[in-house]
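Below is how a single chain appears once it has passed through the pipeline. First comes the sequence as given, then the structure the pipeline wrote out for it. We keep one example in the README because the format questions we get most often are answered faster by looking than by reading.
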Amino acid sequence: MADPSTYRPSPGTIPDAPGVYKFRDPRGAVIYVGKAKSLRGRLNSYFADLSLLHPRTRQMVTTAGSVEWTVVATEVEALQLEYNWIKEFDPRFNVRYRDDKSYPVLAVTLNEEYPRLHVYRGPRRRGVRYFGPYAHAWAIRETLDLLLRVFPARTCSKGVFRRHGQIGRPCLLGYIGKCSAPCVGRVSAEEHRDIVDDFCDFLAGQTDRMMRRIEKEMNAASADLEFERAARLRDDLAALRRAMEKQAVVFGDGTDADVVAFAHDDLEAAVQVFHVRGGRVRGQRGWVIDKIDEIDEAGLVHQFVSQFYGDQADLAEEGTASPVPREVLVPALPDDAPAISDWLSGLRGSRVQLRVPHRGDKRALMDTVARNAKEAFAQHKLRRAGDLTARSAALQELQDALGLETAPLRIECVDISHIQGSDVVASLVVFEDGLARKSEYRRFAIREAATEGDVAAIAEVVRRRFTRYLSETNGNGTGAGAGAEPADQEIRGGIDPETGRPKKFAYPPNLLVVDGAGPQANAAADVLAELGISDVAVIGLAKRLEEVWLPADPEPTILSRTSEGLYLLQRVRDEAHRFAITYHRGKRSKRMTTSALDGIPGLGQSRKAALLKHFGSLKRLREASVNDISGVPGIGTHTAALVHSALERDTPDNTPDKGRGL
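Resulting structure:
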């Protein structure tokens, strides 16, 4: 693991100007690209105390071997350069928006002499126009079947097209009027392309113009007594209307917008996009990504917009409609929103608005997209976890890879959370048969090892947890190692006399996972050896390369990146990390809230609790007058004046809690 201080630029050499920077590994490969309004401020943040960094940011800076930057004149230039470098170098630590499942789309191969309409899944290609994505392939086929009677374009593969051209007879669709049969020369290449262009215009939202034209032709045919042609045009018009009914109308003003929403936790994020064209929802897309930095929704918006629309613009053909809509509706605006809007406007060729909807139909649609994002995120978390076959395979893989006598049906994981050594806490999560057992989670406030680092903290947690285990299984009830918070305490004894089941600490794991590498795994194993416990396997899971460390082994065990066993270990570790951060934030918030009231004469714990309960928060208490404070039962005028005076002098710490993030 590299020490970032070995390649940190000299103080004062980083310019205080907008620009784009690249981190390279020791072999020179680009592993991360980012932009900043101030290169100095942004790059200095990467060389702070490693314990303050988001886990994946910490992994990035310890993998890198050098950093370089390019100064630009404006933020718009920085956006463009950042996008170009991400596309050119494909850095491993940059967010990559890959579909969480392969949505089907309707593809039109405009790069062929006789363009083809077909259902498609996979990466986008130049020269092909895409409509959708749709939720189901059958929805595309149903819509396509309705539209082929109006736009009889080719839908067959190259082989079928070539074969029918050789035999001189069209396929069935050519006989029933759902293909213009260019394979046998019924229409020329130019006439067939006109049909395809009309089809694309209709799906792109130019529905009213198309339907008015057909209605006008129908009336003209009827006036000329061409009743058969008029009847055919009437049926075409009905088919178009049925196809339009399948697309939900959400706005009556012909809105052209993309609506974007996110659902995320500390480590991953899901994004959903609804494409609204001509007031109708034309498609939907979704991704699930890893979060590299401790990033909020505004940061996610910046990452998504710059990557998604840059890629779409690169794939768009000249003369086709711009993939960038007039409006991009997002849940939060990034700091560089004006620059992003200018960049999008350049891609579109006309003004693009990037804004947050606050009321009305657009706000309602944003809420709908947000619900879809939350559902997609939940499904992503549960998809593999809920698969019994995958869980069984994961447990078997772990047994084989770690040399265990039996499959680890019960896995416990320990993680530590703190900020620069303050409010050090730990979590212990439990997975049984590959699924989380949240009722058996435990949390610990670190005591003796609070100032000694993560390795000592892990040793303390393991000692307290397994001392309690020995206490309960021996049935002496002393609880020598008891250390869980009051909410997690349980009655003593190895067996609960009411249920007849083992108590929580009396049930040992088959496998104990600690968040860290060799030193952490060795510390946990040493504690178990001291306590005489030999039937619990111990490993460390390092975030850097997801390496598995066995105690006393000089080299890690590497599991395949596609391994179900590694995926299970990652889920266990990430859940322990989430639970530890949640506890740490609550503990720190509670300390910061009550500390402002400490030291006020006559104000004990009961009166502090009464004040906070009455006003609801320290902020409201700070805004209250002496009379308001004295109105709280048990608080006299003199004490109220002291409280008011103390809060006026106190400056609140409004720094947001980032856990271990940036």
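The chain has a mean pLDDT of 78.

See the next section for the split statistics.
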